Amino acid sequence: MSSEPADTAAPASSPLAEGVVRRLYLLAAFMAVGFSVIWLLPKSETMRLSCLSRHLPMQFGTMSGKRVEVTGKELQILAKDTEFERAEYRDVTKPYQPAVEVSVVFSGKDLNNSIHRPERCLRSQGWNFIKERSVVVKNAFADGSDLPLREIVCKKPVALEDGRTIESMRVQYYTFFGHYSITDSHYGRTFQDMKDRLFNGYDQQWAYATFSVPVTKIYADQGLNIDSTHVFSLEQSEQILEHFIRQLAPLVVDRK
Length: 256
Known about the structure:
- The chain is an alpha+beta fold.
- The protein is built from six helices and eleven strands.
- It has helices at residues 15-37, 73-77, 118-124, 186-200, 217-221, 234-252, and strands spanning 47-48, 59-60, 63-67, 83-91, 100-106, 128-137, 147-159, 165-177, 182-183, 203-204, 207-214.
- Strands 2, 3, 4, 5, 6, 7, 8, 9 and 11 form a nine-stranded antiparallel sheet that branches. It has a two-stranded parallel sheet with strand order 1-10.
- Strand 2 (59-60) and strand 3 form a beta hairpin.
């Protein structure tokens, strides 16, 4: 008695699966074209300056600052017309509180070699990310507008003089100030540039600003002898940064 031959044909793919694959291909093609178009957009001969002030104030409220020299690889890898401003601030009424470091990079005409994603720099310096999120400082400016920021909390090993290695932790907020736009997104900044060139016919200068402070509690947790008044948790360090930014932002940003 003969038996029917086994059906070895591959099952036909479902319309649903084909639709998903087609949409993925279309999305990939759209993203590739979108990021390539910026190279084809017309360049403007003039650049509208960033709304962020060129110079950080050294005294405001209870804060006292000192300028910090910018050296090392930053000066080597970024475009020659890139401008820097960096300062360290302490609250004169709270000398036990950790200093806040502010660093600003003003882009030159070559935007692609003036400003880049801060995550890339931090990782190349050995920092490991443990927390990332978007933060909004409400009513940061006199006109009632908000300030969007990106938070990165990171750790890296540090060698002590006695040969031990401990972990250091910092919390950093960053954002980008254009001529009129403020965004905490690197890709949002890129698409804004594309819109400006295509529809408005100009470039806007961007200032990449970072605000950072150490999280000193991590040292106490690792057995270092630190006075309790100098120990600040992550949450307390975040509060220090937000309070500092609230004081500084209206002084250095022109929202007209």
